[in-house]
Amino acid sequence: MAIDPRKVLPTKINLIRLRREEKMLRKIRGVMEEKREVLLHYIKSAGEEYNRYQNEVFRDIYKLFSYYYQGLAEEGEARTRAYTMAVPESLRVRVDTRVLFAVKTPTFQVVEETIPGNPYPPEASPKLRESRKMLASLLPSILKLAEYEEMLRRLIAELKETQRLVNAMDYVILPSYQAAIKFIKSVLDERMREDFVRLKMLKRKLEEREEEARAI
């Protein structure tokens, strides 16, 4: 938290306290800097892994839709829709959380027993039946890809917040402490000079009185 140097009493106790707090804030700033570097490294490696995994999943999804549209062309849209209209909406996904660098990220896992059965009868197009089989096998991969996306989104948000705090330290909080310390030190130094001058004047007066006393 930034402080207003004009509202700090220029005392030696406050000077000691502010120096201690500034030292502690610099340590906190160092920890945040390390956290930022770790987040940057992890986001970079996770982003590369995400891109690789995304290409694999998209390749399988492209193959799935290729089979589906071929089967749709063979079976006809009306009959294909009739097959799927009878399928109940039973699919469920289990959502948990894990913690990465104090950031909560979700994990998704399909509840296998809730996956609907294949709606296409044996006499339906083999391409449609195969596309349905491929979709069921791809569900965990699709959810894993969603995990990567949400994890990266939250880690990037945490990185932005950490960078904001580092900037606040560098441009607001620490400069305010430095200004307050400088202000108090200048006031104390000025008081010390004034006290020194007063002592010299007092000493001179005492010496003058002693000389006058000896002269009598």
How would you describe what is shown here?
This protein has helices at residues 12-75, 77-85, 126-215, and strands at residues 93-100, 103-110. α1 packs antiparallel against α3 (126-215). It is rod-shaped and about 135 Å long. The model has no long low-confidence stretch (mean pLDDT 88). By secondary structure, the chain is mostly helical. It has a two-stranded antiparallel sheet. 75% of the residues lie in helices and 7% in strands.
Tell me briefly what this model is.
75% of the residues lie in helices and 7% in strands.
Helix proportion: over 70%
| Uncertain runs | none
- Note the beta-strand portion: 5-15%
End-to-end distance, in Å?
66 Å
Main pleated-sheet profile: 2 strands, antiparallel
Please give the radius of gyration in angstroms: 37 Å
What is the SS-derived class?
mainly alpha
Shape: rod-shaped
User: Number of DSSP helices?
Assistant: 3
Q: How are the strands ordered across the major sheet? A: 1-2
**What is the H/E order?**
HHEEH
Count the beta strands.
2
Query: What's the average pLDDT?
Result: 88
How are the SSEs placed, and which strands pair?
Elements lengths: L11 H64 L1 H9 L7 E8 L2 E8 L15 H90 L1
Antiparallel strand pairs: 1-2
Summary keywords:
single chain, 216 residues, mainly alpha, two-stranded antiparallel ribbon, 3 helices, 2 strands, 75% helix, rod-shaped
